[in-house]
Amino acid sequence: MSSYITGDIFVSAPPKQTLKAWGPFWDCVDILFEFQNSDADEEHTEWRLLWVAGIALLRTIGHVLAKVDGAASSAHKQAVDHAWARWKADTTANAIFWDFIEKERNNLLKTYEFGAKISKGDNGYFVEFSGGEDAFQLFREAVYWWRHQLITIEDQL
User: Fold this and answer.
1) The pLDDT of residue 147
2) pLDDT tens for the 157 residues of the chain, in order
3) Which residues, at least 6 apart from 19, have a Cβ–Cβ distance to it below 8 Å?
4) H/E/C letters for each residue in 28-75?
5) d(CA 131, CA 36)
6) 22-36 and 135-156 are packed helices; what angle lies between their axes, rounded to 10 degrees?
7) For residues 153 and 65, is the Cβ–Cβ distance under 8 A?
8) How far does the chain reach from its first CA to its final CA, in angstroms?
9) Which domain of life is it from (predicted)?
10) Fewest Cβ atoms nearer than 10 Å: which of 8, 61, 83, 102?
11) Listed residue (105, 130, 104, 107) closest to 117, CA to CA
């Protein structure tokens, strides 16, 4: 498990939340809650709409961070640019962004191809991502990754 997956994301909120990127982040938390508390099988396909919205919102966090928060002040620009440079310099450590958020957003919004699909396992149905991973677990990891990134940037401001 990644080191940034700590605490209960549904009950603990970072004390400092000045960035506009927290807006789409909290919408992602709401979608994560729905994923963790919903049925997904061949008869319950509601998860697909939440998937599209959730993936788009996961990528929106980065856009708001770069375009809105980065323009707020020179300190904001420096902190946001530094974060993007870190993510680009170590794509392996930030694979959840590059290999999941970015790729799945491109699949969905540019070609409407889903990397996630309903599969039947030993314990019933689940939503499987293209590599065989639990898609909702990947979404969860992405939400926690963004929380860690936003807290790190807030700490630099």
Assistant:
1) 97
2) 567 777 788 888 888 999 999 999 999 999 999 999 887 767 778 899 999 999 999 999 999 999 999 999 999 999 999 999 999 999 999 999 999 999 999 999 999 999 999 888 787 788 989 878 999 999 999 999 999 999 999 999 9
3) 64, 65, 69, 150, 153, 154
4) HHHHHHHHHCCCCCCCCCCHHHHHHHHHHHHHHHHHHHHHCHHHCCHH
5) 20
6) 150
7) yes
8) 28
9) Bacteria
10) 8
11) 130
Residue from 27, 32, 9, 23 nearest 139 by CA? 32
Which residues sit opposite 125 in a β-bridge? 120
Q: How big is the chain, counted in residues?
A: 157
Question: What's residue 38's pLDDT?
Answer: 82
Query: Distance between CA 133 and CA 116 in Å, rounded?
Result: 9
Note the pTM of the prediction, 2 decimals.
0.93
* Cα–Cα distance list, 57 to 15, 74, 149 (Å): 22, 26, 15
Q: Are 136 and 127 in contact (CB under 8 A)?
A: yes
Domain ranges of the chain: 22-156
